Amino acid sequence: MAVKMRLQRKGRKQAPFYHIVVADSRSPRDGKYIERLGSYNPMTKPATIDIDRELAFSWLMKGAEPTDTVRAILRFKGVLVKKHLMRGVAKGAFTQEEADKRWQAWIDAKETRISERREGAKAEKVAKHKSIHGEAKVKPAPVVEEVPVEEAPVVEETTATEEVPAVVETPVAEEAPAAETPATEESPATEEAPVAEASVEEIPAEETPAEENKEAPADDQNA
Description:
Low-confidence stretches: 157-168, 170-223
Strand order of the largest sheet: 4-3-2-1-5
Number of helices: 8
Helix content: 55-70%
Oligomer: single chain
Order of helices and strands: EEEEHEHHHHHHH
């Protein structure tokens, strides 16, 4: 059975993307496939390719024949480079460890170039936008909206200070005469004091004749 590595179309009209699959060469384009290797989206810049390198290399060594587009994808992702290195290992040109190091170094350099290309595409897009629409307006920072002056609690404190005079009321001064009036009513107690003194003064006045009477018989006896 002849096996091919080809693309299987997905997506909607005028926005396609593809699955990279391994399928029987006799099956229709969008028919059943044996295994899926990854995906390919040509609508992005640069094109987005996601593929399992080890799995693709395995099918390639088993004899699967890639189409022209898939072959270009395998070359771009380094699968064909690994196939070339494995031939060198088989011939004894270098060891397996050396082949793995070379392949990893190639992949790292390739990924660096891809990332640089993506950054360049973004910068080009921004420059094109500026040339058409002018300088992009910088949106005001949201911090300005978070600091409204009107929401300060100073207004609430002023209302509290205005209510302080209402708390201090004069009725406290009106209660003072009520406290003084009972003191004036108790003044009759002071008037009773002379009565007690008068009684005290009257007692010796009554006792003096008795003492004189007692002294008189003593004088008579002496006589």
